[in-house]
Design brief:
Glycosyltransferase; 404 residues; alpha/beta; 5-stranded parallel β-sheet; Rossmann fold; 7-stranded parallel β-sheet
Amino acid sequence: MSGVLTSMRRAAGRFILSLPEPIAVRIVPKTFGFRASEVPKPVLATPTPVRLLVAPANYAGQGHAWARAAERLDGVGGVSLTITRPGTPDFPADAIVSETVAVRSKRWIDGQRRAVRGFTHVLIEAERPLLGGAFGGDVRAEVAELESAGVRVAFVSHGSDLRLPSRHAEHERWSPFLEPDWDLAPVLEQTALANAAVLDDAGAPVFVSTPDLLLDRPDATWLPVVIDLERWATTAPVLERETPVVRHSPTNPVIKGTALIEPVLRELAAEGRIDLRLESGIPPAKMPAAIGDADVVLEQFRIGTYSVTAVEAMAAGRLVIAHVSDQVRRAVLDQTGLELPILEADPDTLGTVLRDVLADRERFRELAARGPAFAAAVHDGARSARVLAPFLGADRDIRPLEPR
């Protein structure tokens, strides 16, 4: 009798799964891992001559920011799509779908495969599949389908997706990849190698979000990260309090070097020299207030580059301290004509640098005051739009960004 019941259950299960997905999901949502209401409509192209889709990572909100920046080019419309993973911060996007839905929902996959043909250009972030479970997540197959449909494809790498740990460890004394017990390093090595192979096979244009990645992809083009200047602007004074607020808010403590700098920060705080704010996991919506309340923002001390947080702090006129390699500083100067206004320090020198700041506040207020102009010149979206213009076949003239 139990065998008969088992056969009946299996038959019922096969029947349910044969039903149209919206019906089947309502009957057995646990089997699919999502509810029918969680399957969004496909993201559609804008009614413009050039139609850009940026997807699927949107790390630090950059996919969405680049899509908006591209719209400053005449005739270009940009749309951002984020395929979210559990535990990742929420950043704005034009369309958002969970990775579970993107991988498992045939309705979403089929709809998005049709919709993506309406775009003229696609910028694939972090070598991740933008069509979810289509082709089993094979990005090469996605590129082939897009190009066969007449869609031009380019890639943009954000950081750990392309940065090769073994190469980084050769160049950077403070590289986190020198840590013998960091289990993630071998995984990142294999990921970077696999992603580099995808880029090689695709033969499409490659952009990188930070200049240090040019070491990993010399033929790539730097696409500066973009921020909303008004969101970070503040009139709060810098280094005028007797005990300045020093903030370090690492998204990844290993990468940022938190453990290496924390002892000297605790020492200075114990002496009453600084008011230390060491916090992780601050929601993106609360970061402008957190950074605006600081005098000094400590960014990262192991990778040798500067990231979105540093740009946001510069836009707020805060004194930013980080370890930025000579290669990155040269690349910024060569491509923008501007010196990067970030005070150099590494884990060995940070204590001395902070004491110098406390002893000569006026000098370092002047350095902090250069931050907003640098952020405006390099990271307001206009430069990024011009960088994208050749790929998009657009004129480099910049127009004001229209609200949407």
